[in-house]
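for the record, two folds in this file. i put them one after another cuz i was lazy. first one right below, seq on top, structure tokens after. the second one comes after a little note so u can tell where it starts
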Amino acid sequence: MTTLSVAPIKVMIVEDYKLTRVGLRCALNQHEEIEVINEAETAEDALKMIEQKTPDVVIMDLGLPDMNGLEATMKIMENNSDKNIKVIILTSHDREEEVMASLGAGATGYCMKDIDPDTLADVIKQINQGACWLDPNVCKTALKIFPKPENTQLIYKQETKDDKGHLTEREQEVLRLLVKGKSNTEIASELIVSVHTAKAHVCSILQKLCVDDRVQAAVKAIKEGLVDENSAK
């Protein structure tokens, strides 16, 4: 009886510290189900490598030189939407801003750098199969992102224009600025938040409105009355 062999999960490591890259590669290659196919010191190198050899999972550091890991994650998602690449953030940052922005950028895993190597291997396997994973140390942080319900009764109703596409008050503010043609930097400045947070809000808006880009979001907002036309001028 022949046994069907399963192709290993192809992993790319994006990390600017060589010692960390070497340690990750050695630890992950001990697992037969995982194969580290590429290592990149910068986000720019990673994007070029992905064009030549597509990984299943990218392990991404946030604190990279030049282009940071958050922006790199967004570009991977945008440029490879047909390849189903998964991104796991591996970082020492556990602030709400980083967690929220990373999830908004498209990452499906968020791990702290003190994670046990065998646990990281398990996370890679789970995420490759379609799961999401948050390090226990940031779960409480992530829960702060979600708004508390106004009541605990489950009421099912047909969506109307008054629902504003289920956008939060902050997202409605961002949407009004999008309609005005503001960039992420300008939105961040006006709302007194970081550019990362502004990007995360924009990503969330695009997902909730089921549109592909900012222009489509602005058109839909005006067409469906999701923003007041006078306030958007």
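(here's the note) second protein begins now
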Amino acid sequence: MSSKQVNILLADDDIDDRLFFDKALKEIPITTQLTTVHDGEQLMNYLSENSENLPDILFLDLSMPRKTGFECLSEIKHNKKLQALFVVMFSTSYSRDIIYEQSMIDILSKIGAQDYIRKPGDFEQLKKIIHNVLIRVTEERQLNAQGENV
């Protein structure tokens, strides 16, 4: 496996969103491996079964059946084996109230999410957002590796 490959886990119950995400990844100039799960219970089972080989990044939808993104994030950040996982909350916009959305972002950040992305309706914008996050994760991984080698 190439050290440049970014292993991504996407937890999202919307099949169209999963397909768009996968299509966007294929058009980004970063080598990735995508695994998807479709609800919070499946996510937590996957992470438990793969705790020794976690993805580089988890894109976590807030609104999922069986277990919400909030519940999953909280469980991840309270589990010593999982808490270092880079988590990006990935959600449909709460257009009704920007103050509500900002307070939710603040709460997610306090729980331990590294980022919050509002799902764009535009495919090109989706590609750009995902690409920027992957660049950030790749750069952080390189910095951490350099720190370990010093």
